[in-house]
């Protein structure tokens, strides 16, 4: 078989696996969002954060199974502790937004600040903060007005941004978005992700009455940009740590962290915005 045909088959298989995995995850997320009681919602997404923590530990340089499990159990302990501090959640969510903004700045100025991401304790602490805040930001969001709708919108927005960026980037991408961090991501792809997010997400907010038309556009644009930066931030950590994929749990996607990095970034900003 010619090498071009082999490459074509490989790409087709990767795309097929990516689509099947995305559909399975979307179905599981929708069922959890709309039909699970709060305790099950917290448990399902808490377990997802634990899998993500296992992968994050490797980015921090905690490579052995024992070290990575210790990291996961530490996150679980922080989750249980956070349940007793619910009155402080909004303040901590605000703090995590500031941490994310610092991370986004480090993307822009990379590689001048990349040295700090070589510290295992610094990256590990970031993971504890960001994963924990993502979890109780989800819980804060789902318990607010139109909470289930907002959580669904969050997943829809990050998926639309990712799908638009992936396919339009492959079709039309010519200019790298962040060549020193992730050469495969393009400005055309980022623009395509933003446009698809607007097409899909604005009508949902407007027609449901959650926001007026212009507010729906503004929120979608801001959160889609945060989603793109969240994806780039994980790419930055992988670049510094020398890891290609955070894991191999999800066929066509890599690790779970590769799939939910944008969600982890967007959810505290969204929770803060609609709180």
Overall pLDDT confidence: 88
Strand order within the widest beta sheet: 1-2
Topology order in helix (H) and strand (E) letters: HHHHHHEEHHH
Low-confidence blocks of residues: 3-11
Any idea what the shape is?
globular
Largest sheet: 2 strands, antiparallel
Number of domains: 1
Estimated structural class: mainly alpha
What's the end-to-end separation, in Å? Answer: 58 Å
How many strand units? Answer: 2
Helical stretch tally: 9
Strand content: under 5%
Rg, Å, rounded: 18 Å
Give helix % range.
over 70%
What can you tell me about this protein's structure?
- The protein has one domain (3-274).
- 77% of the residues lie in helices and 3% in strands.
- The chain is built from nine helices and two strands; from the N terminus they run H-H-H-H-H-H-E-E-H-H-H.
- Helix 5 (120-142) packs across helix 9 and helix 6 (147-172) runs antiparallel to helix 7 (187-208).
Please provide a brief summary of the model.
By secondary structure, the chain is mainly α.
Topology:
Blueprint: H1 3-35, H2 38-59, H3 65-82, H4 89-109, H5 120-142, H6 147-172, E1 176-178, E2 182-186, H7 187-208, H8 213-241, H9 256-274
Antiparallel strand pairs: 1-2
Helix pairs in contact: 1-6, 2-3, 2-5, 3-5, 4-5, 4-8, 4-9, 5-6, 5-9, 6-7, 6-8, 6-9, 7-8, 8-9
Summary tags:
275 residues; single chain; 3% strand; mainly alpha; two-stranded antiparallel ribbon
């Amino acid at each position: 078989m010619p090498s071009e045909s082999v490459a074509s088959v490989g790409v087709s298989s990767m795309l097929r696996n990516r689509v099947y995995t995305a559909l399975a995850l979307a179905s599981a997320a929708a069922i959890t969002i709309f039909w699970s009681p709060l305790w099950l919602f917290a448990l399902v997404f808490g377990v997802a954060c634990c899998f993500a923590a296992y992968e994050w530990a490797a980015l921090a340089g905690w490579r052995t199974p024992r070290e990575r499990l210790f990291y996961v159990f530490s996150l679980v302990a922080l989750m249980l502790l956070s349940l007793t501090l619910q009155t402080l959640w909004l303040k901590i969510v605000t703090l995590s937004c500031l941490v994310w903004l610092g991370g986004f700045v480090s993307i822009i100025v990379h590689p001048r600040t990349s040295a700090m991401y070589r510290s295992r304790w610094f990256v590990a602490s970031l993971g504890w903060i960001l994963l924990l805040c993502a979890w109780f930001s989800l819980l804060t969001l789902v318990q607010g007005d139109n909470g289930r709708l907002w959580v669904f919108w969050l997943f829809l927005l990050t998926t639309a941004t990712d799908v638009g960026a992936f396919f339009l980037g492959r079709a039309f991408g010519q200019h790298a978005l962040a060549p020193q961090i992730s050469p495969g991501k393009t400005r055309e792809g980022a623009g395509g992700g933003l446009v698809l997010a607007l097409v899909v997400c604005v009508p949902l907010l407007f027609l449901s009455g959650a926001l007026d038309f212009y507010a729906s556009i503004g929120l979608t644009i801001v959160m889609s940009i945060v989603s793109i930066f969240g994806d780039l931030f994980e790419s930055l950590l992988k670049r510094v740590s020398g890891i290609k994929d955070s894991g191999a749990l999800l066929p066509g996607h890599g690790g779970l962290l590769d799939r939910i990095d944008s969600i982890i970034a967007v959810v505290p900003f969204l929770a803060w915005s609609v709180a």
